Amino acid sequence: MPFVNWLKRRLVVIAGLLTLGYLLLPNVIVTVFSFNKPKGRFNYEWQQFSLDAWKQPCGVADMCGSLSISLQIAIWATIGATVLGTMIAFALVRYRFRARGAINSLIFLPMAMPEVVMAASLLTLFLNMGAQLGFMTILIAHIMFCLSFVVTAVKARVMSMDPRLEEAARDLYAGPVQTFLRVTLPIAAPGIAAGALLSFALSFDDFIITNFNAGSTVTFPMFVWGSAQRGTPVQINVIGTAMFLVAVLITLSSMVISNRRNKQKA
Amino acid sequence: MTTPDNSGDVRLSGISKTYDNGFTAVQPLDLTVPQGSFFALLGASGCGKTTTLRMIAGLEDPTTGAVHLGDQEVTHLPPYKRPVNTVFQSYALFPHLDIFENVAFGLRRRGIKSVKKQVEDMLDLVQLGEQARKKPHQLSGGQQQRVAVARALINHPKVLLLDEPLGALDLKLRRQMQLELKRIQTEVGITFVHVTHDQEEAMTMADTVAVMNAGRVEQLGSPTDLYENPDTTFVANFLGTSNLIEAEVDTKNGDDIVLKAGGGKLVLPEARCSAPTKAGGKVLVGIRPEKISLTHADDAGDIPEGRNRLTGKIADASFIGVSTQYVIDSPVCDELAVYVQNVERDGRLVPGADVVLHWSPAHTFGLDAAQSLLAGTVGSAGTEEEAAA
């Protein structure tokens, strides 16, 4: 049974490739259909190849406006959540204070709670406070739910860090600021970066919480949702493909840079 | 420098450390480490030796007392303002920096721009010139240890502190690094304060050893002095092995004390007894296992006069190459250890044989009988208590 043996030896590889295909197929479809020229308003059936949408990515009314709002919110939410979350993570690992245990578990709550519940309760809170729904309320909500992810990512990194490293830095003439900048921060950086990337991704494509608290502001996911009712412009696929490509490029370049760095050092 | 002779002195006066949880790691302590010496703080884990070192480094605030380096008081200076550098246990090399940058760290923090020459010289001194661009995790344990030493030494500290620097190395490498560190210390002439729980390491490397127990210095002296003349049962047992025999003071004979132990008599030079010696009082007689000779009971008549003697029966014998270690059951003491060099082996000395143990009275030391016989031995009450703390 040579075929069975061949299969046995490659089972892991085949299973891996199939899983990868399962993960990437939706992205392939999005990319392929960004080159479609649909009949009518819905881009669900392949008609013919066209570069029209790529030539005019902002050709649909309001779409690029919503994209810009989403990007701004994602950037600010990432900055806010990363700074606050990193400080919380350091506080939780480094200091012993009252209610530390409780805070440790409460931090997980936003991750575990159904988004709809959070969305609705946030809306209630904003309305009771008489807040004007819009950019700021979305941003506050996003920072809130991104925080727990940053705290989790950074905490893991800080916990595994040898406190002697900072003592060694202080012993070697580094004051508190220098110690933080030269030793603590670089060592915690992978955790902080992971938290920041997660925050950006979560904020950029959040729909439920945003939809509840947006008022008249329209973010990109809300725009896609809204247009899906009336017809899907090809430009949505263009933006989706572009986002995917940017993510792939960032990942690849960081891999190349770290590889090259390791080779140089070795 | 106006006072070059003592600028590397470390003076601890009345220094103590009590933690927030009420545990006192170091009892008020006075200690002077002279400039240029290799000083070891020796003790079991939890005895306060590392805390003492950290107070010199500035990583721990003393509860009472003062730390002086030469004539300068540094008690309340932060670590980065003290002319002192530390080689940490497990080295604490910066994982995100390569070897070159690790070694250059201290120089750069002091604002020195051209570090290349100095770092390269220092890496050559510890024979790591080739590894400059590697990351710490790419080096072996022994190499990492040398980087840690280089990273500290490049700053020309007045005092180099070493916190169990060889603990993570295997035995052979440890021996090699002991000699290496001793060589470096002689070469650079900096004061070294070395913390260790390994008595052999302390004795090999240090000029002066302070034996610590439960936050106190039990005894301070040169390795030979501590080994030959222990003041307490803790030191006697912690440094090597000691046979301790309970005896009663009988009479004094010139400079010697005559003691009764079991049925026999033992002679102890008065100068070597740290305990009060009243007639009828109790004293612990100490003798190191390698100072005792073994003679088969049949040849007892050949033993010269004037030696201390005990009779016994061999309970166990283990051959370990250079010597044979015997355990002897004796009426005065259950388990006497005797190490005999394997020069001429007497075939009759096997378990069960009746023997006479004898040694020169000059090798006998006397200790206060009011202490625990077992202090400083492995698993004794004293060490357990410290480990728990």
From TrEMBL, chain A:
PANTHER family: PUTRESCINE TRANSPORT SYSTEM PERMEASE PROTEIN POTI. InterPro entries: Bact_Polyamine_Transport (IPR051789), MetI-like (IPR000515), MetI-like_sf (IPR035906). Keywords: Cell membrane, Membrane, Transmembrane, Transmembrane helix, Transport. The chain crosses the membrane at residues 12-35, 73-93, 105-127, 133-154, 180-202, 234-257. GO terms for biological process: transmembrane transport. Belongs to the binding-protein-dependent transport system permease family. CysTW subfamily. Gene3D superfamilies: MetI-like. This is ABC transporter permease. It is found in: Cell membrane. Residues 67-257 form the ABC transmembrane type-1 domain. It is a multi-pass membrane protein.
UniProtKB/TrEMBL annotation, chain B:
Its EC number is 7.6.2.11. It comes from the Bacteria. InterPro entries: AAA+_ATPase, ABC_SmlMolc_Importer, ABC_transporter-like_ATP-bd, ABC_transporter-like_CS, Mo/tungstate-bd_C_term_dom, P-loop_NTPase, PotA-like, PotA_ATP-bd. SUPFAM superfamilies: MOP-like, P-loop containing nucleoside triphosphate hydrolases. Gene3D superfamilies: 2.40.50.100, P-loop containing nucleotide triphosphate hydrolases (3.40.50.300). CDD domains: ABC_PotA_N. The keyword GTP-binding does not apply. Keywords: ATP-binding, Cell membrane, Membrane, Nucleotide-binding, Translocase, Transport. The keyword Transport applies. Part of the ABC transporter complex PotABCD involved in spermidine/putrescine import. Responsible for energy coupling to the transport system. This is Spermidine/putrescine import ATP-binding protein PotA. It comes from Streptomyces alanosinicus.
